Amino acid sequence: MRIAFAAAGFALAFCCLTGRAEAQFTMEQALDYPFANELAAAQDGGRIAWVRNLGGARNVWVAEAPSYKARQATDYPDDDGQEITQLTFSPDGRYLVYVRGGDHDANWPAEGDIAPDPNASPEERKVTIWSVPLKGGAPVRIAEGDEPALSNAGRLAFVVKDQVWTAPLSGKGKPELLFFDRGKDHDLKWSPDGKRLAFVSDRKDHSFIGVFTDKNSPLLFLAPSTHRDFSPRWSADGARIAFVRQPGIGGAPVPILKQTPNPWSIWVANAKDGSAHLVWKSPNTLLGSLPETAGGPNLFWAAGERLVFLADLDNWPHLYSVSSGGGKPELLTPGAYMVEHVAESRDGRTLVFDANTGSASGDFDRRHLFRVSVDGGRPAAITAGDGLEWAPVAADAGHVAYIAAGVSHPPGAAIVDLDGKERRDLIAADAPADFPGAQFTAPKPVSFKAADGVTAHGQLFDRAGAATPRPGVIFVHGGPPRQMLLGWHYMDYYSNAYAVNQYLAAHGFVVLSVNYR
């Protein structure tokens, strides 16, 4: 059973309370939708996995080339609030590693080291790492931990209480500390040959990029300073590491009621001696601030010695490409739209992303998939129409997997050729038999001027043929960075909100969902 809303982050305003309409479906039916997320692909291609939440029970599903026929890989039957995240394939294709438990999308700090337990279990819930054999079999608990990273050699590293540990994939060996570091370690990235591990060492007001080689070699820190360094990305030859740098925390207090720039830069370091050089530096302006959209800077080390990143330099989150040696970055995605979820192709020459643009009316409030070369050129549409598509991953050299939704179609895994052909859902019957999606009304994109002249946007749920006058509801979602869409949302919380708005529209209300300015 889903909970419609949290206590904060939304508001309902009622007006014109006249008229009444008979219910077409119940709130329980409206909220009983499947939700797919956490889509992931194997490093060598040909295998994808995702998490499907149906009735509160979360399970892992997988599909393999060439048919990409979906099948369930785990069997957790209960609505116990234990999320499944961070799906990772082993390099030999035998196992899928995942994390069970925790609250990885929380907007508030956790209660110390206590994991969420909405079912009031008599045993304390833990955040744990599991593996499931892809050829069939029961999942195996590997260890307590989070943030799993698998090397090309099949070596597993993960985080326990801010330190890096390792354990066998079989779950039969005893976990052990991989190395000691004085900081709080996260963001683990193995080198291409699987012999070295880059990580972020957080020291409160500053952070380092560290590199672990073995227990007989000292940790290497890349161009250590009082800055905050993060997002390490290895070059294909394993000789260099690109990373993002921001000023350290400290100095004069930042004014609370005044917007101030949050500058950042991209550096490349020698992975043997730690020396580094500046590749690109943002302007010290509000538009030059570190992006806050999905994936933040979205740093990729692409083919042709190109570094690709996301920035808001023209007031839109767009992709840019720059030489790893430095120089002027090239804008890859020009236009009045935002780039959100980004993935790299198998050969590193193409980026696939979703954006709120397209050829259909109202695409400003949708998401569609596009591709663009890291060398530049005009982006090409992969999907189009009145549906929504997001979170792409490169399934193999010629296919893109993604999450698809629509007005009545809840979020589910889908796949399409890189040129947009042969598009299909991976689970045909993606909702319970009594799910009322066919009775949903198509929301309409609307805009209106505020008193100061700024244009505000929203979606209007107005059931055709209904009697007037009717009661009205103004829905204001949490945010402000979020955007409600003309259909289901890529965040579970906002999909709940969408289902509730559909319920209200079916019960005689006109609903105006308003996005922030």
Short description:
With 517 residues, this protein is mainly beta. It has two helices and 37 strands.
Description of the molecule:
The strands form nine sheets. This protein has a five-stranded mixed beta sheet with strand order 1-36-37-35-34, covered by helices on one side. The chain is globular. 4% of the residues lie in helices and 38% in strands. With 517 residues, it is mainly β. The protein is built from two helices and 37 strands. The model is unreliable at 1-10 and 17-21 (pLDDT under 50).
Shape: globular
Question: How do the strands line up in the largest sheet?
Answer: 1-36-37-35-34
Helix content: under 10%
Major sheet characteristics: 5 strands, mixed
Given the helix and strand composition, which structural class is it? mainly beta
User: How many beta strands in the DSSP annotation?
Assistant: 37
Work out the helix count.
Answer: 2
Mean pLDDT: 92
Percent strand equals 35-45%
Low-pLDDT segments: 1-10, 17-21
Radius of gyration: 24 Å
Give the CA-CA distance, first to last residue.
33 Å
